[in-house]
Known about the structure:
Helices cover 26% and strands 38% of the residues. It is α+β, with helices and mostly antiparallel strands. Strand 3 (52-66) and strand 4 (69-81) form a beta hairpin.
Amino acid sequence: MTEVRIAHTAELDTATREAARALLDEVFEDMTDHDWEHALGGVHALVWEEAELIGHASVIQRRLLHGGRALRTGYVEGVGVRADRRKRGHGAAMMEALERVVRGAYDLGALGTSDEAAKFYAARGWRLWRGPTSALTPVGIARTAAEDGCIHVLPLAVPLDLSGELTCDWRDGDLW
Length: 176
């Protein structure tokens, strides 16, 4: 039997954090320490099969700049399901839990995704950001053209121009 559990990073014991990191290392060939750090500090959705962790996703707070506003954003990170447990609804169950958090606590949701996963998010109501992307860096705003076409948002109450500029806050590692 599988179960989705929700917990803040502060509520995860060491063994659970280590299991989540190991799972993401297995799911993503290019997982880095920065990527793992980006997934911490927010709410995690964890799929357990008995005592084994088979899925992880988290939503953390970021500030995205758009239309002259700094928007409190629920940014989804570290979404992964063990390869032999995919296509069984585990990803959808984790996203359902995190989307409730986003809808209840943020101005919008956002995430960066691969081409392979884009249809999954689009089917859940996430919209492709069509405009230019940038990052607020220590030396000013810098274009992140390589990320154009990879960012999806979950629009909520704040009006968005999906063809306008979207700027993320600074962080080490991958900016988006």
